[in-house]
Design a protein that fits this description.
By secondary structure, the chain is α+β, with helices and mostly antiparallel strands. It has 13 helices and five strands. The protein has two domains: 2-151, no CATH class; 189-403, 2-Layer Sandwich (Heat Shock Protein 90). 63% of the residues lie in helices and 9% in strands. It has a five-stranded mixed β-sheet with strand order 1-2-3-5-4. β2 and β3 form a beta hairpin. α2 (11-21) crosses α7 (133-149), α3 runs antiparallel to α4 (62-79) and α6 packs antiparallel against α7 (133-149). The two termini are 62 Å apart. One of its GO terms (cellular component) is membrane. It catalyses: ATP + protein L-histidine = ADP + protein N-phospho-L-histidine. This is histidine kinase. Pfam families: HATPase_c, HisKA_3.
């Protein structure tokens, strides 16, 4: 009901409503130790006030009056950690209720004790730590007015400044705490999004690895199986050896698949760390492709050194380029170049115009795939550049420029 009624009024009136009858904002994690400390502090202040009032001239049940005044000190201080707004209300009400002259003929400068010059600003400070500035402004205004009534006029500016300072300090503390809370929430959200992104990137990486392994090995296996009857028609011994090579290529593909599946099934700390393929493995790949009947060659280059991730990217580009040429340009000559220039590693896979007769005999057909997209993601992740497309001799070319030390 309070929220509905204050939502329709201006902020200042809403603050007045809250400070008079609004609800206290419960602390995020009220501690029992803190509550016990304030309760003991209030008890100590009550004892001090009780014995300090012994010199005051009172009429009637003196002990009961002193006990009541002392108890009025305990309640607000004890309520501060959990209900600062309620504590402030009790203190303000008690401050405005002066003892009648027939009980205190000499009068009391404060209904409780002169120490209220510290207690009331402290209450404003705690209210400001928990409530918005509109509520705090009204609490500070009422507190200053209640204190000025009981003090000499010369002390009014100091009292008002003290109360305003308490309100400002408390409000700044509240803003800082809320900002830290929001920052913590944003950090948690960022961590969740980062973890999700890492998972997605790892899935994409494994998907690229699976694609490269399957596409390359299966393409060579299919090519060797399809062309063996034509290449080895009169060579029984070579034909038997060909099947041995096909079986070896199949086992290599299965081993690569098991390695990738092992990464998926294992915990990050227990997964096997098999060495990634690099530049040193490209000649063996070219040799295996040539043994399968492809017209593929590697142009001689000098000694090169690059980071493992760059070498693996270059290896996969050559692998995918040969696989694409095998599937989409059967019978074409494939030329692979890997060279270092201007602090970059330049990889080029070029195939000539496909042989129509080879296409018919092999039964290969062009089809859609994710090879180019995978290569583009690999190169882009390293900050390199990839270009693909038809070449001048009606063939096809894949060219990548990678930083040597990404």
């Amino acid at each position: 009901m309070v929220t509905m009624r204050t939502a329709a009024v201006p902020p200042l009136l809403s603050g007045l409503w809250n400070v008079v009858i609004g609800r206290d904002r419960a602390p995020a994690a009220p501690g029992r130790l803190l509550a016990a400390v304030f309760a003991l502090t209030g008890l100590g202040a009550a004892l001090f006030v009780y014995y300090d009032l012994a010199d005051v001239d009172l009429i009637g049940p003196v002990a009961a009056i002193r006990l009541a005044l002392a108890a009025a000190v305990v309640a607000p201080v004890a309520l501060l950690p959990r209900r600062p707004l309620l504590a402030w209300r009790l203190a303000i009400i008690a401050t405005l209720l002066d003892l009648p002259l027939d009980i205190a003929p000499a009068g009391l400068s404060w209904p409780w004790h002169p120490a209220q010059t510290l207690v009331l600003p402290a209450l404003v400070l705690f209210v400001a730590v928990r409530h918005p500035i509109t509520t705090v402004s009204w609490a500070a205004l009422m507190t200053a007015a209640a204190m000025v009534v009981h003090l000499p006029t010369s002390q009014a500016p100091v009292v008002i400044a003290f109360v305003v300072l308490s309100a400002v300090v408390g409000d700044q503390i509240r803003r800082r705490v809320e900002a830290q809370r929001d920052l913590t929430a944003e950090r948690k959200l960022t961590e969740v999004e980062l973890a999700r992104r890492v998972v997605l990137e790892e899935r994409a990486r494994i998907a690229r690895e699976m694609h490269d392994v399957v596409a390359h090995h299966m393409s060579l296996i299919a090519l060797r199986a399809e062309t063996a009857p034509y290449r080895l028609i009169d060579q029984p011994g070579a034909r038997d050896a060909e099947f041995v090579e096909i079986a070896s290529a199949s086992r290599a593909a299965l081993n690569d698949m098991r390695r990738l599946l092992g990464v998926l099934r294992s915990d990050p700390g227990t997964a096997a760390t098999a060495p990634s393929p690099g530049l040193a493995g490209i000649p063996a790949m070219i040799e295996a492709a040539g043994a399968a009947g492809l017209d593929v060659s590697l142009e001689p280059t000098g000694t090169m050194t690059a980071t493992p991730v760059v070498e693996e990217c270059a290896y996969r580009i050559v692998q995918e380029g040969i696989s694409n040429a095998t599937r989409h340009a059967p019978g074409a000559a494939i030329r692979v170049t890997v060279a270092a220039a201007d602090r970059t590693l330049q990889v080029r896979v070029h195939n000539t115009d496909p042989d129509p007769a080879a296409a018919v005999s092999s039964g290969s057909a062009a089809g859609g795939g994710h090879g180019i997209a995978g290569m583009r993601e690999r190169v882009g992740a390293l900050g390199g550049d990839l270009t693909t497309g038809p070449s001048q001799d009606r063939g096809y070319e894949v060219r990548a420029v990678l930083p040597l030390h990404a």
